[in-house]
Amino acid sequence: MKTLSELLLAVPTDEYEILSSEVNAEEVRITSIAFDSRVAAKGGMFFCLEGVNSDGHNFIDMAYAAGCRCFAVERDIPLPADTVAVRFKSTRRALSAVSAEFYSHPDRDMHIIGITGTKGKTTTALLIHKMLDTCGIISGYIGTNGVSFCGKHFQTLNTTPESLEIFKYLDYMREAGVKVVVLEVSSQALWTYRVNDLSFDTCIYTNLYPDHIGKHEHPSFEHYKRTKRSLFRDYSPSTVIVNSDDSAWKYMVRGCRADVITTSAFGSSAAWRAEDVREIRTREHLGVSFYACRGDKKTAVTLDLPGKINVANALFVLAVCSDVFGISAEEVAHTFDGMTIDGRAEVVTSPSLPDVTFVIDYAHNGASLEAILTVLRGYSPRRLICLFGSVGERTYLRRGELARAAAKHADLCILTADNSGREPTEKIIAEIDAAFPDGYPPRILIPDRRDAIYHAVNIAQKGDIILLAGKGHEDYQLIGTRRVPFCERDIIKSAAADLSAVGAQFSKNY
């Protein structure tokens, strides 16, 4: 519990104004903070955040009914006499500063690793988290796959949660004895102040491709690029690790005062580089082996994750664990054995189809889809079948990007739903279908994603690799405004088990 005046010390005085009230703001005690009126409580401070689909100012009455008597606003709002309101220039920026102060800056008691880039954030973050835990350094993870630490797991809505949630989870982690936290840092999080008051110790840059550009997102690629760079320029990390195979890496670290460690999955000049990369395919795994080189020292590494993109991710792990935390490259390499990531090039097999490889991956934009398809093509499939869709109500440019990526690498495409929301799935997949150049490869349009998966299983042949792209780790489908339970791993296994009875039916229908 802190007083309002104590919390406001975290915000520059020219950023806020206490509006006239019968309440003495100096005496107001804050027992909780909320930006969602559904979790507002007595003694709480409610922050009115303006979003794409809602405005927190419209939920003040609900927060008041729940017991809140202190409100953070961006404009004058009529309030009852027993309340106090603070008008901020930006309630989002203020939420970050106030949350850090409310939870007594837990980030300062841990080593915070921030990872940004278009692709590879989740895999790299989770590999580092698993590696540190296995090697005896208690760690936590916050990112696309939720929040994980000390055997606990919490779901989140965004790759990088709102600042209040970040500091709340960091406080939990501090109490649990966590020493290192690995955080995925999205461009939206940087742009909307979600990590504004975090102290980063190590930052990682993976790569850069056009994404998240359009209505309600970044206005241009240059804005997206500049926002990503701010993690390295504005947050003063002591160590920065970059993928020197990416053409934008020098731009990202320009003006950065940290020690910069370079990595290269293609064997070029870098502090950490990979040599003699080889693909490995078995009935249950798609993997890769290589030598991780640091100076003249070579360490043999085998991953149960496919392709050079995961070689790049593994090099980040080696650089962090060895150069920052002093774990030997040999121990890291040994710990990689059998390590996989849910929904990231995740291989699913079935006794009913022992010679067919199903791969679940989160690839949901053109760059990531092209990357995973290129990787899978390297394993010489009889056919490479790609099942995918695109999210509704936003990221409209992705639809053409996805089509062009699939057209370059897939032998057959099954277009279907992927979190359509309130936009008709038929409209989305028709736009994707229309963007395929020259009508190739052949495509099947099945709006219901479960039906589409059953069809993919039914037409599978020996030696095929079937990619289910877009959902990855997600265990739901967004239909309208509802999250409907949906686990692709379970559906694949169920469809394979029901192949003779159900598969024929779907084959006739489509």
Distance between the ends:
61 Å
- Outline: globular
Low-confidence stretches: 502-510
Helicity, in percent?
25-40%
Strand content: 15-25%
**Rg from Cα:** 24 Å
Question: Average pLDDT across residues?
Answer: 92
Q: What's the architecture of the largest domain, going by CATH?
A: 3-Layer(aba) Sandwich
**Main sheet record:** 11 strands, mixed
Give a written overview of the molecule.
This protein is an alpha/beta fold and 510 residues long. The chain folds into three domains: 2-102, 3-Layer(aba) Sandwich (Udp-n-acetylmuramoylalanyl-d-glutamate--2,6- Diaminopimelate Ligase, Chain: A, domain 1), CATH 3.40.1390; 106-336, UDP-N-acetylmuramoyl-L-alanine:D-glutamate ligase, CATH 3.40.1190.10; 346-509, Protein-Tyrosine Phosphatase, Chain A (Alpha-Beta Complex), CATH 3.90.190. Helices cover 33% and strands 25% of the residues. The strands form five sheets. An eleven-stranded mixed beta sheet has the order 11-10-9-12-8-13-14-15-16-17-18, sandwiched between helices. A hairpin with a 2-residue loop joins strand 25 (476-479) and strand 26. Helix 11 (366-377) packs parallel to helix 12 and helix 15 packs across helix 16. It starts with a strand and ends with a helix. Mean pLDDT is 92; it is low at 502-510.
